[in-house]
Amino acid sequence: MKRVAAGILCLAGLWAGSACALEPYQEESEKSYPAAGISSVYLENARGRVELSGTDGDAVVVRAIKTARGHGRADARELAAATQVALAQEGSRLVVRVRYPQITDRWCFWSFNWSDHTRRGVKVRLLVQLPPRVEAEARVASGDIISRGVSGRQALTATSGDIRVEDAGGPVELHSTSGDLFGRGLAADAMLQSVSGDVRATSIAGRAEGRSTSGDIRVADVAGALTLSSVSGDVGVRGARGGLKVGTTSGDVVARDVTGPCVASVSSGDVDVEFTGTVGESEISSASGDVTVRLSPQARCNLELRTGSGTIEMRVPLRVKSVSRHLVSGTVGGGGASVRVRTSSGEVLVAASEGGRP
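^ that's the sequence the OP posted. Answer follows.
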C-alpha cells in the first residue's frame, strides 16, 4: 500500500511539475540615432543587464532583447508585448527607459525552485553602442552593468548588481548598493563606491577614490592621488604614485609601491606601508594593531615613532635624535619629509622595502 501511495505521489509530482513549467519567449529590437545631435545617453532599466560599448561609428545604436517566461508561449508573448522600451531624444540627450508591466502570478505548490527560470516574468537586456565623446548615465535596479571601450564620461548606478568598466576614456563614477565594482584601464579620474560589496580597480591614469561600507578594496597602479576608505573590510594597494590617503574602521591596510605623502589610519587592525619612491609628509597610525613602514635604500625622511604599549624596532640605519621606551625619532638618508607613526596598542617596525604586493 505504501509503495502504491508513493507511486501516486511521484506521478502527481511529475504531472504538476510539468504543469508549472514556464515557456520562454524572446524578441529583439534595434534603433539608431545620428551621433551628431547627441552628447549624452541616459538609460533606466529596473530588471536586466545594461551593456555599453564604445564604437568608431557615427551613430548611437540601442539594441533591446526581451526575455519573457509565461504559462505557454502566448502568455510569454503578452508579457513581452506589455514591456515597453521607450526611446526619446530630449535636445542633445537620448533617453532610454524600460517600462515593465505589473505582474501577478499563480503560486504553484509543486514549484520549489524560485529562480528566474521558474518564475513568470520578463527582463530586458540593453546593448548600447556609443560613438566617441558621447557621455553615458545608466541606472539599474536589479541587474549588472558592463562597459567596455567607452570614451565619454560615465555615471553608472546599480541598486542590486555588479558594475564592471574596462578601457574607459573619460571620468567614471560607479555606485552600487549591493554589488561588487571593478574597473580596469581608466584613462581619467574614477570614483567607485559600494555599500555592500568589494571594490577592485587597476590601471588608473587620473585620481581615484574608492569606498565600501562592508567589503574589501583592492586598487593597483594609480597615477593620481588615491583615496580609499572602508568601514568593515581590508584595503590593499599596489602602486600609488600620486600619494595615498586610506582608512578603515575594522580591517587591515597593506600598501606597496607608494610614492609621495601617505595618510593611513586604522581603528582596529594592522597597517603595513611600503615607500619605493619619494617619501612625502606622512602619518600612519593604528588605534589597536601593529604598524610597519618599509623604506627603499634611497629614502630620505624624518621619523617619529610612538607606541602606547608595545615595542619599536628599527631595521634601517637611523640617525637618532631622541629615544625612550615608547618614542624614537631621527633621520633616514640625511632627512627629508616628516613621517609620523603611531599605535596605541601594538608594535612599530621600520624595515627595508621588500618590493612585495598586497
